[in-house]
Amino acid sequence: MNSTPARLLFAIVGAVIGFFAMKFLFGGSGDASLDRIGEELTQTSALYRVMEEEYPEDFGVLLRELKDIRELPEPEQAAREAAFAHATELRLRESGNALAAEDRLLTAYLERSADTLDVVLRELGETRCGQYGTLGAAALGPAASDPAILPVIDAQVAALFRVLANGRDREPRALPSQEDYAAVNDPAGLSEEEASRFQLVGSQAAGTDGYCRALAWYLRRLARSEAEGADRVRAGIAQSLAQG
Questions:
Q1: In degrees, to the nearest 5, what angle opens at C-alpha 224 toward C-alphas 10 and 99?
Q2: Which of 30, 35, 103, 178 has most Cβ atoms within 10 angstroms of its Cβ?
Q3: Which sequence ranges are marked TM in the entry (predicted)?
Q4: Number of domains, the chain
């Protein structure tokens, strides 16, 4: 495999975090103050905690919009669209920071991505997990809000935003080279089973039995790689995902 399959790892954040906005807007609370809205969102979502800590101005804009939306006759779709728009704008604006983020946070993001695949595989099976691995959370539809699934997706997306916040005002790395990818993806020393997983991920055959488990294994391998340039590969993947 000559490159890392970054496009397999997309997490479409807006479609997911809208569910947290829904939980507050329609959860029965009568207090629609900005403080109360912010408290409810940060209590239920790791991503909103990151936004409050790292991007307070953006978080404040979102809270004010959600407060206004709550007064509408049919606010559900408007709230989802607001969550999507704010997350997308922030992600795209900050995407370049990924190249400068500390490697420990890049590693954590890949680990959280593998954790999400594990849970989706366990809860929804191989086919749906493969769809998530290739298309992101939008491929899960309503299942993305399942109580067993939503928290791990939230943790995955929050980890990406922590990467972006951490990279602000830091010197960026160079983009990963083909030599970096080759070093990270060197199959030398793999067992027969590991080599099979490696080939399965490289085939990008998302519907194949065992693919999702192999992809989770690959992400953890990449997260822990100490090969020359591995940090640049991790940073390049995070940047690509943030720009996607």
A1: 55
A2: 103
A3: 6-26
A4: 1
DSSP annotation of 204 reads T
Tokens linked to 3: 């490159």
What HEC string does 35-102 produce?
HHHHHHHHHHCHHHHHHHHHCHHHHHHHHHHHHHHHCCCCCHHHHHHHHHHHHHHHHHHHHHHHHHCC
Nearest-angstrom CA–CA distance, 93 and 161: 11
Query: Which pTM does this prediction carry?
Result: 0.88
Spatial contact of 235 and 98, defined as CB atoms under 8 Å apart = yes
Residue labelled with tokens 């693919």:
211
**pLDDT tens, position by position, 165-210:** 999 999 999 999 999 999 999 988 889 999 999 888 887 776 678 8
Residue 99 burial (10 A CB sphere; 0-12, 13-18, 19+):
buried
Distance CA 61, CA 137 (A): 25
1-55 pLDDT, tens digit per residue, is: 545 554 444 444 544 555 555 555 555 555 678 888 888 889 888 999 999 999 9
